[in-house]
Amino acid sequence: MAYIVGRCLLQEILDHKDMEQIELANKLNVKPPQINKYVKDKQGMSYQVAYNVAQILNCNMEDLYEWIEVGEHE
């Protein structure tokens, strides 16, 4: 089974955790507009950023994005 990355779910996770984008930006030591780029799907997170975001939000990296099944590859 193969998947492609769909939309970013970061804002939904932040809402669930009662955390603002600016708070996450401060914890990552980045500027708030950078977080907004991820939320608006204007830029994907690097593996390193996704790992750090997942650690801060106490979730799995896979939870940060929607995953769309595209079929099977053998």
Structural commentary:
It contains 4 helices and 2 strands, in the order E-H-H-H-H-E. The protein is α+β, with helices and mostly antiparallel strands. It has one domain: lambda repressor-like DNA-binding domains (434 Repressor (Amino-terminal Domain)). The protein has a two-stranded antiparallel ribbon with strand order 1-2. The radius of gyration is 13 Å and the shape is elongated. The termini are close together. The mean pLDDT is 95.
Keywords:
74 residues; 434 Repressor (Amino-terminal Domain); 19% strand
Q: Assess the beta-strand content as a share of residues.
A: 15-25%
Structural class: alpha+beta
Main β-sheet: number of strands, strand sense, barrel status? 2 strands, antiparallel
Number of domains: 1
CATH H-level superfamily: lambda repressor-like DNA-binding domains
According to CATH, the fold-level topology is 434 Repressor (Amino-terminal Domain)
Give average pLDDT, whole number.
95
Strand sequence of the main sheet, in spatial order?
A: 1-2
- Share of helix among residues? 40-55%
Rg over alpha carbons: 13 Å
Head-to-tail CA distance between termini: 8 Å
Give a nutshell description of this structure:
The protein is an alpha+beta fold and 74 residues long. The protein has helices at residues 10-16, 21-28, 32-39, 47-57; strands at 2-8, 65-71. It has a single domain, classed as 434 Repressor (Amino-terminal Domain) (Orthogonal Bundle).
